[in-house]
Design brief:
The protein has about 130 residues and is mainly α. The protein has one domain: HPT domain (Four Helix Bundle (Hemerythrin (Met), subunit A), Up-down Bundle). The chain is built from six helices and no strands. Helix 3 runs antiparallel to helix 6. The radius of gyration is 15 Å and the shape is elongated.
């Protein structure tokens, strides 16, 4: 199985293979430590960002929800977690419009999606 096919299979449709390959290309040949550092940082930072979205929802603070969702959207998109980035964009849009209705379902889906992403990234991390 070639490298690209292996990567696509490892990603389970959860993370964009092209983005992962692009991130890996930033590394020196044979040394994926930078890629591993990016994964570690994303996995360490994202739960806090997701908790901030949940806290904003719990307090009906649409503005805080927008800001927290924006941060998680950006980092997720940069890491190829496009499904989570899309959910965060929807949360951001609701927050920008001062809306909280419908956000609880999106937050639950975001939490579930992050769990899937974590599984894939930990497998990639080795």
């Amino acid at each position: 199985m070639d490298h690209q096919t292996q990567s696509s299979a490892d990603l389970d449709g959860v993370v964009d293979a092209e983005t992962i390959e692009s991130l890996k290309s930033l590394c020196d040949p044979g040394d994926l430590s930078l890629f591993h550092d990016l994964i570690d940082t994303y996995l360490a930072d994202s739960p806090t960002r997701l908790e901030a979205v949940e806290a904003a929802l719990a307090t009906n603070d649409a503005g805080a929800m927008e800001r927290a969702a924006h941060g998680l959207r950006s980092s997720s998109a940069n890491m190829g977690a496009l499904g989570l980035a899309s959910l965060c964009k929807q949360l951001e849009t609701l927050g920008r419009g001062g809306q909280i209705d419908g956000a609880a379902e999106l937050v639950a889906r975001a939490r579930s999606e992050f769990d899937r992403i974590r599984t894939v990234f930990l497998r990639l991390r080795g």
